From TrEMBL, chain A:
Signal peptide: none annotated. PROSITE patterns: UBIA. Belongs to the UbiA prenyltransferase family. It is found in: Mitochondrion membrane. It is a multi-pass membrane protein. This is Protoheme IX farnesyltransferase, mitochondrial. Its main location: mitochondrion. It comes from the Eukaryota. InterPro entries: Protohaem_IX_farnesylTrfase, Protohaem_IX_farnesylTrfase_mt, UbiA_prenyltransferase, UbiA_prenylTrfase_CS, UbiA_sf. The chain crosses the membrane at residues 113-134, 140-159, 166-185, 191-213, 234-255, 261-281. Keywords: Heme biosynthesis, Membrane, Mitochondrion, Transferase, Transit peptide, Transmembrane, Transmembrane helix.
UniProtKB/TrEMBL annotation, chain B:
Belongs to the COA8 family. The gene is COA8. This is Cytochrome c oxidase assembly factor 8 isoform X1. It holds the Pfam family COA8. It comes from the Eukaryota. GO terms for biological process: intrinsic apoptotic signaling pathway. GO terms for cellular component: mitochondrial inner membrane.
């Protein structure tokens, strides 16, 4: 028995709407041409690029002669680990991402890729990524990589829907990549590594808290536990506090032999500026001040890292190439 | 915003499928008849005859989730059927949750705005069609209250969602392996004969 397609309508306008809606249906067929773009979005390629840059900064700031092979392995390994973590994060969050404006065009939400493929891709990134870091660089860096993937996917992601503590966990996730860069170069977790991690950790707060201020409606509706919704005053206080901490950490950099004393001096203007915007956000608590703080954080971090690199403490006792005169 | 009652419209069976010539069975939309809260427009979408894939639609007006129209192959194995039914059921479950959630949110938001505006200026009357809203800072109290009110609901949902997501992915893996095994067996038969 044949069942025909019946559009049970009497209204011609309804028919018009029908065909318009029907045109928006897409066949869930994966084409090889689209795959690179889809995987790039699945792995949050821009965020991955940022993570890899912070790792590179950590590597470059470490007090070791710059070794290209090690550097390339570190950046590749970290990049792959980041792709894996981001893919799993999206795999977990499909219905939530669908309901937020910022995330509703992600590949899994749009059905451009199946969950199985997303998980397989994540595994295909995580395994070589961690292997590269562990055996190509050193086990410490590999361990940090695994730990960070775990922290992001199994702690931060589910915690977003349970407690505001997720923001602090997320800040640690952001702090680990530069530490990995450092340990890749030096093989050890010393004070410089913690300083860099500390700087990235502190930066996360003005960055994220300011961003979250404009997303309160989506968070509330979607069931995300964020400070901006549950503890707004704390949200702004924490952002300001960590802006000021950046000033302090920049001053600690020369004390820990990471940079020269020039660094905290030349970094002071941008650190004071972000602290000022942090203060305005704290006081005004409005969308305008939150947006200003957020956008400032976007250029503040790369600039701060560049300044650090330019003021890197030269290796102690070296007088350039060649042996010291006897 | 008037809440739509599902009523008869959702009972329109998923008719628009001409599966003739492919020998495919009809997949009835199960469970939508007895939904008493979540409205969902049953789409009258029909996939083209030649297609052997699932089809995904635009985001639903209420739940923001994209409905999937599942393809049923001629020789669907029991495992494939189990997977498809799990996906179908999860889709309906998700649809109900989010449509409910979003409708409740908008309804309570309107009520909050109404009561605040009333309190602010008893003389002011929001005319119908005029969008009198409070700014984000005034809405903050509502957002906080709504989030904490729905916390337990979200905890249950999260747990179920994670379980379902893992189950679906696991079954997808099983089906994929199964298909590979079948193809290899076919190849072996061909090479041996």
């Amino acid at each position: 028995m044949e069942l025909e397609c019946t559009a049970v309508t009497e209204d011609s306008m309804a028919v018009g709407k029908e065909t318009k809606e029907e045109k928006q249906w897409k066949e869930m067929k994966l084409s090889v041409d689209d795959l690179p773009g889809i995987l790039a979005r699945l792995s949050k390629i821009k965020l991955t690029a940022l993570v890899v840059s912070t790792t590179s900064a950590g590597f470059a700031l470490a007090p070791e002669p710059f070794a290209w092979p090690c550097f390339l392995l570190t950046t590749l390994g970290t990049g792959l680990a980041s792709c894996a973590a981001n893919s799993i994060n999206q795999f977990f969050e499909v219905p939530f991402d669908s309901n937020m404006n910022r995330t509703k065009n992600r590949p899994l939400v749009r059905g451009q890729i199946s969950p199985l493929l997303a998980v397989s891709f994540a595994a295909c990134c995580a395994v070589p990524g961690v292997a590269l870091l562990t055996w190509g660089v050193n086990p410490l860096t590999g361990a940090l990589g695994v730990f960070n993937i775990f922290l992001y996917t199994c702690c931060y992601t589910p915690l977003k829907r349970v407690s505001i503590a997720n923001t602090w966990v997320g800040a640690v996730v952001g702090a680990i990549p530069p530490v990995m860069g450092w340990t890749a170069a030096t093989g050890s977790l010393d004070a410089g590594a913690f300083l860099l991690g500390g700087i990235l950790y502190c930066w996360q707060f003005p960055h994220f808290n300011a961003l979250s201020w404009g997303l309160r409606e989506d968070y509330s509706r979607g069931g995300y536990c964020m400070m901006s919704v549950t503890h707004p005053a704390l949200c702004r206080r924490v952002a300001l506090r960590h802006c000021l901490a950046l000033v302090a950490l920049s001053a600690a950099a020369p004390a820990l032999d990471v940079t020269t004393w020039t660094f905290p001096v030349i970094a002071l203007p941008i650190n004071l500026y972000i602290s000022y915007l942090g203060f305005r956000f704290y006081r005004d608590a409005d969308r305008k001040s939150s947006r200003k703080l957020f956008f400032c954080s976007l250029w503040h971090l790369p600039l701060l890292l560049l300044l650090m690199l330019s003021c890197k403490r030269p290796p102690a006792g070296s007088s350039g190439a060649g042996e010291p005169p006897s | 915003m008037a809440a739509l009652r599902p009523g008869r419209k959702t009972l329109l069976p998923v008719l628009c499928r001409t599966f003739t010539g492919r020998g495919c069975q009809l997949a009835p939309e199960r469970g939508t008849e007895r939904r008493d809260v979540a409205p969902s427009r049953i789409s009258r979408f029909c996939p083209p005859r030649k297609s052997c894939h699932d089809w995904i639609g635009p985001p639903d007006k209420y739940s923001n989730l994209r409905p999937v129209h599942f393809y049923i192959p001629e020789n669907e194995s029991p495992l494939e059927q189990k997977l498809r039914e799990l996906r179908q059921e999860t889709q309906e479950w998700n649809q109900q949750f989010w449509a409910n959630q979003n409708l409740t949110f908008h309804k309570e938001k309107e009520e909050f705005i109404h009561s605040r505006l009333k309190a602010k200026g008893p003389g002011l009357r929001a005319e119908s069609g005029q969008k009198a809203t409070l700014n984000a800072e005034e809405m903050a109290d509502f957002y906080k209250e709504f989030l904490s009110k729905n916390f337990r609901k979200h905890m249950c949902y999260n747990r179920d969602w994670y379980r379902r997501n893992f189950a679906i992915t696991f079954f997808m893996g099983k089906v994929a392996l199964d298909r590979i095994r079948k193809k290899l067996r076919l190849k072996q038969k061909k090479t041996s004969s």
